[in-house]
Amino acid sequence: MKAELGEEFESEYEAYLLINEYINWYNNVKLHSALGYKSPTEFEMEYFKSLCTK
After folding, report:
1. How far is CA 39 from the centre of its chain?
2. pLDDT tens string 1-54
3. Are 18 and 6 in contact (CB under 8 A)?
């Protein structure tokens, strides 16, 4: 995780905040080529929606 964020944390609380911010970005904003350039959250929502329409 340190390599991803590129910094050291001054406290556990700062680490907690930055890691949660990164996880939110990774799951809700970052587009993944393996998921058809969708975020994991968007991909998952479309997947479950497709199950309901079958």
Report:
1. 7
2. 556 667 788 899 998 999 899 999 999 999 999 999 999 999 999 999 999 986
3. no
User: Which residues is 38 bridged to in the sheet?
Assistant: 32
Close Cβ partners of 32 (under 8 Å, ≥ 6 residues apart):
38, 39, 40, 43
Residues 39-48: contacts with CB within 8 Å, 24+ apart?
Answer: none
Q: Both tokens of residue 16?
A: 């907690």
Residue with structure tokens 């998952």? 44
| Helical residues (DSSP H) of 1-54, grouped into ranges | 2-5, 12-28, 40-52
Residue 3 token pair: 């390599």
